[in-house]
């Protein structure tokens, strides 16, 4: 009996190590964004799997639809795409907010390649569909959807409650889902791509006050991965971008949630609110450089030449360190409880 138990243990240990190595490779690929050439996706059927490969976007003048372009990443991305010769439909919440500096940002000769439309991603699917359908008529197609619009809503979980989480999800998740849903008919036709701006906060979650934002971005990451699988048969690709801290104008403009104070958190709230308030201007990331890489990947140019389409793009030294730390932490957690975790099945294997 003792010998049999020992054999069971050794077999299980061997299987675990084998799977841990494969799992680590998978996690590494998942988190660090290293993927293999001409990404192959297996579609599971009852018979043998069909392997579909994801080719690069065809070389041509692309039509981009970019949300949230009044400031930050979105504003830089509009300029980058235009300078590569592409056409851009840029969404802003209020057209009157676009001022002379927005005009000056774009070389005069390229302004005809830009259409600005007014759109709030929380308007709901019907309203967004009407606006996207109308905008698509401009150049007759949409090749690239960039779900960039987002808000950095932060607050302590108990104080914010579900209403703060809902606010974050309304913009960062449901707005993104609605924009994707109404744009996909165009992207399927053009065999284009969806670029979702996630965040390293989906992985760096052990930070006071970041709960609503982190949770919403983790949802963006998960749904992007599923979407990539669902869209692969149509040759529509998904790029999930996970930036670290970048010096944009608006991401820290929303005040730390303090409207429903729970006295037990008085000290923590104060310290945390001050910490968030001290971030603007100190971020190491340059948003213009980051968006150049996104354009490289979408167009298969510059830093993306000769490289396969990455499912994940982790941007910033801070983000890369955080993702690696999370991958290690997960592996340790699995290791530590592996033996117990395996022992819960009806059948031992
Ligand atoms: N900066 C960073 O460190 C960082 C790191 C990781 C991820 N990100 C993500 O990057 C994306 C862009 O953020 P950013 O840093 O560039 O910040 P930003 O300067 O605040 O830009 C956000 C943009 O989204 C727009 N927006 C906000 N709510 C909207 C809504 N309901 N409907 C439509 N547009 C809306 C804003 O428009 P208004 O001007 O009208 O508010 C603005 O144009 C976000 O998804 C953010 O979560 C940023």
UniProtKB/TrEMBL annotation:
Keyword line: Oxidoreductase
Any Pfam family: adh_short
InterPro entries for this protein: NAD(P)-bd_dom_sf, SDR_fam, SDR_oxidoreductase
Domain of life per record: Eukaryota
GO molecular function, one term: oxidoreductase activity
Family: Belongs to the short-chain dehydrogenases/reductases (SDR) family.
Protein name: NAD(P)-binding protein
Organism of derivation: Coprinellus micaceus (Glistening ink-cap mushroom)
Taxonomic lineage from the root: Eukaryota, Fungi, Dikarya, Basidiomycota, Agaricomycotina
């Amino acid at each position: 009996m003792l010998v049999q138990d020992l054999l069971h243990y050794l077999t299980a240990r061997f299987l675990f190590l084998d799977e841990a190595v494969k799992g680590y490779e998978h996690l590494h690929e998942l988190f660090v964004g290293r993927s293999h050439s001409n990404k192959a996706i297996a579609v599971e059927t009852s018979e043998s799997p069909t392997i579909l490969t994801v080719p690069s976007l065809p070389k041509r003048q692309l039509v981009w639809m970019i949300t949230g372009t009044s400031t930050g990443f979105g504003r830089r991305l509009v300029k980058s795409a235009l300078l590569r010769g592409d056409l851009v439909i840029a969404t802003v919440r209020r057209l009157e907010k676009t001022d002379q500096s927005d005009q000056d940002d774009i070389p005069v000769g390229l302004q005809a390649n830009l259409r600005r439309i007014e759109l709030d991603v929380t308007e709901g699917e019907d309203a967004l569909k009407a606006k996207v359908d109308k905008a698509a008529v401009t150049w007759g197609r949409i090749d690239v959807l960039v779900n960039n619009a987002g808000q950095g809503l932060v607050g302590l979980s108990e104080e914010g409650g579900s209403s703060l989480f809902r606010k974050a999800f309304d913009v960062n998740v449901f707005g993104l889902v609605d924009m994707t849903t109404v744009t996909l008919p165009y992207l399927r036709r053009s065999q284009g791509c969806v670029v979702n701006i996630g965040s390293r906060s989906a992985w760096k979650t052990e930070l006071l006050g970041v709960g609503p934002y982190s949770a919403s971005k983790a949802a963006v990451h998960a749904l992007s991965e599923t979407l990539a699988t669902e869209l692969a048969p149509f040759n529509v690709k998904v790029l999930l971008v996970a930036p670290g801290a970048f010096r944009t104008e608006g991401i820290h403009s929303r005040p730390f949630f303090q409207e429903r104070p729970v006295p037990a958190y008085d000290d923590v709230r104060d310290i945390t609110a001050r910490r968030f308030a001290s971030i603007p201007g100190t971020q190491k990331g340059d948003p213009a450089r980051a968006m150049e890489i996104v354009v490289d990947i979408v167009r298969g140019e510059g830093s993306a030449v000769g490289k396969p389409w990455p499912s994940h793009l982790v941007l910033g030294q801070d983000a890369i360190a955080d993702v690696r730390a999370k991958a290690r932490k997960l592996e340790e957690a699995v290791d530590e409880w592996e033996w117990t975790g395996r022992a819960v099945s009806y059948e031992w294997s």
